[in-house]
Amino acid sequence: MIEIRGISKSFKDHEVLKDINLKIPDKKILGLIGINGAGKSTLLRVISGIYSADDGVVLVDGENAFDNENVKKKMFFLSDDPFYTARTTPASLLTLMNTFYPVNEVTYFETLDKFKIPIHKRMDKFSKGMKRQVFVSLAFAIRPKYMLLDEAFDGLDPLARVEFKNQIKDMVDKLGTTVIISSHSLKELEDLCDAFAILNNTKIAASGSIEESIGVLHKYQIAFKEDIDIHFFPRIYKHIEKDGRVVRLISELNLKDIEEKLKDMKPVFIDELPIEFEEVFTAIVENGGKMVWKRYSYITLEEESQQF
Fold first, then answer.
1. 40 and 110, same structural domain?
2. What pLDDT is stored for residue 41 in this prediction?
3. The overall pTM is greater than 0.70
């Protein structure tokens, strides 16, 4: 288990993380979500022990993660721009990484073959996506207990993304790996991760099960006979937008309650639409994380971890 207790981190006068608290149970795939500059990469570097925190501590299986060789052996962190020399090839990269980790060579070369990566060609001649595939192959071959991936989908083509997801799920199922993956692609995370944490304004705005969070909110499309001013719309929404006489909103209320609240406005129709996790994320950020999760028996990651 990874426990993040009161982590704060600043760079000079710029505060990036403030009092971050999160528990990540074993065998989970956690999506770390946030807008650009939210602190996702910094948090991953603190968890992996690359950065020291100004305050707080990260515990991995009960041990302080910072400057801890035992923890480093269990964990592999793939940054958004990993280091390699000008003459590095996928084959020579394996030789280098074998000095730090026990790498399964069969898995490494099999995964590279699936990605159709030439193993003796210099990586500085590769496209961004090809470089990403090399390091993703390496991550799978190391088979760590904890795998941290920063912007993992960046540069991967659609087929590579499918293979990437399948490999991650396989590692979790067969090896019990815990994965933390940051990404701007919320749609990619929705069908891969079973848990999420949203970073916003230096803090964790919300965290928990993706499936449960989608069930908490509802999306409605409402049509009116005449144009309306949404500034005078009842405050029953977490997010609202208007297109002519049609209003789309996201709310915690169920359809029956929505119909009751809007009956005096005499809508032509009210339809409930499928909601995506990206829309849930938007609603959480716009409301500063102030969602009434408990009202719907929502289980946070911290509460869930106590069940293990």
1. yes
2. 93
3. yes
